[in-house]
Predict the 3D structure of the following.
Amino acid sequence: MNIPSVLGIVGTLLGLVRAVPQLVRLLRAREAFGVSVDTTATSTIVSIAWVVYAILTNQPYVCLSTAPTAVIFGISTFVALRFGRLVREFKIAPVWGAVLLLTGLLGGVAGLGLVLSISVLISNLPQLWVAYHEGNLEDLSLGTWLLCTCDGLVWASYALLMHDTSILFYGIFQFATSASITALKLAHSAKVSLKD
C-alpha cells in the first residue's frame, strides 16, 4: 500500500466521523448556541459537490469521505434549526449552491474543481464569524473542529502526492479555518472555566 492510499484511507475515516461530534452535541444539548446553520448547510452542499467531483475524477477515497459527511451535515442543519437557529441565517448556502451548480454545468470538472478548492473557506467562514461574535459557544463541538483541522492536514498531504490542486487548497483552507475555530472554542472554554 502506497502513501497516498494510506492518506486517502485516513482522510476517508476522518470524513466519516468529523461531523458526528457536532450532531451528537446538538442532540444531547437540544440547543444550538454558537453553531452556524449557514456553515452546516453550506458544508452539506459542498460535500455533495465533492462527491460529484470525486466520481468524475475517479477518486474513490474523496467520494467515500464526503458522501457520509453530506448526510451528517444535512441532519445537523435540520437539528440546529429545530433547536433555535433561524432560516434567515442562511446567507451563503443558497448562493454557493447556485455557484457550484453553474460552475459544474458551464466549466465541467476543471471549473468545478477550481470552485471546490475554495468552497471549504466559503463554508467555514460563517462558523468562524459566529464563533468570533457570539458570546456563548457552549454547543459548538470542539471535537468536530479538531477533526476538521486534522482532515485539512491529511487531505493537503494527499493532494501534494497526487498533484491535485483543488484538494490541496481544500486542505489548506480546511486546516486554517478549522484551527481558528478550534482556538476560539478553546478560548471560550477557558473563559468559562475561569468564571466557575
Remarks:
- Residues 3-195 form one domain.
